[in-house]
Amino acid sequence: MSPKTGNVTRLNSVTELLEIAGKLKASTVVVPGGDRVEDLRLVESARDHGIVDRIILVGKKEGINRAIREVGIEIRPRDVVSASGDERVAAATVELIKAGGVDIVLKGNISTPVMNRHIRPLAVRNTVSLVTVFDAPPIAFGRPMILTDAGFTTVCNFGRMVDLVRNAVDVARVVMGIRKPRVAKSRCRRCPPPGWARNSPRENGRRRSFTVPFPLIWPPTQNQWRSKGCPITPGPLRWPVGRMSWSVRE
Fold first, then answer.
1. What DSSP line would sit under 49-91, residue for residue?
2. pTM for this prediction
3. Which of 41, 50, 108, 160 could form a disulfide bond with 31, CB atoms 3.0-4.6 angstroms apart?
4. Higher-scoring residue by pLDDT: 6, 170
5. Strand, coil or helix: what is 222?
């Protein structure tokens, strides 16, 4: 029997999430920019597994109907919400959420910054973060792990870093059934992505430095890091994932 945390059975593999989600009440998903066939195939697969029972698509009606025909799925006419332009699509999506009945938002063919700007006022936490649950045989002996933040938060202060950890820990406890999750932190300091430096504001004639979260999962070589423009090298600290022991430093 799997170890339990409260009423939550500890997750042994990511594939178990599919079985768990299929046993829950089916959800309504809204897709802003719902004219991509890949997104439609994804939500249709979720519907086949009993995870989703209603699909709402927001965007240009012509493009949405074309994608529906290509994928061959059934969408009720009232669940196709016509809106032109990313700003209007995002605004229409937010109105659907506020009206109630929407459980999942799947970002489709729409600008991420535009969607985030419209949906951020609905957040119930100070920091919105991306929490990715994954497993891989070479990492931590294949047990499920969390990676955060891999694509949402960029520039961080200390408080936001604390929030990132708190959000991930909540997922570990509530979803994965881990009562006391272990956290390993890794980061790259003063190493902004390409283009940040030339566009960044200046202080006393010098460009500001950045601290950005840098989730590291596999030990790259020093040359791999330098090829990305980051002046960091493998260091002596520990990164506790299975038998690997590594980290980075400036």
1. TTSEEEEEEEE-HHHHHHHHHHHT----GGGEEE--SHHHHHH
2. 0.68
3. 108
4. 170
5. helix
Other C-beta atoms lying within 10 Å of the C-beta of residue 181: 16
Do residue 112 and residue 138 come from a single domain?
no
DSSP 136: B
Give the burial class of 18: count Cβ atoms within 10 A of its Cβ; 0-12 exposed, 13-18 middle, 19 or more buried: middle
Same domain, 226 and 150: yes
Written as six digits, the tokens of 210 are: 């950045």
Q: Is the pLDDT of residue 132 over 50?
A: yes
> Domain residues for 227?
132-249
SS3 177: coil
Which of 58-62, 132-136, 210-214, 230-234 has the lowest average pLDDT?
230-234
Judge if 67 and 137 occupy the same domain.
Answer: no
Q: Which of 106, 63, 100 is nearest to 82 (CA)?
A: 63
Q: Domain count of the chain? A: 2
On whether residue 127 sits in a domain, the answer given is no
pLDDT at 9: 78
Instruction: Report the SS3 class of residue 35.
Output: coil
Q: Provide CB contacts within 8 A for 63, sequence distance 6+.
A: 35, 109
73 belongs to a structural domain: yes
| Residue 203 or 239, more confident | 203
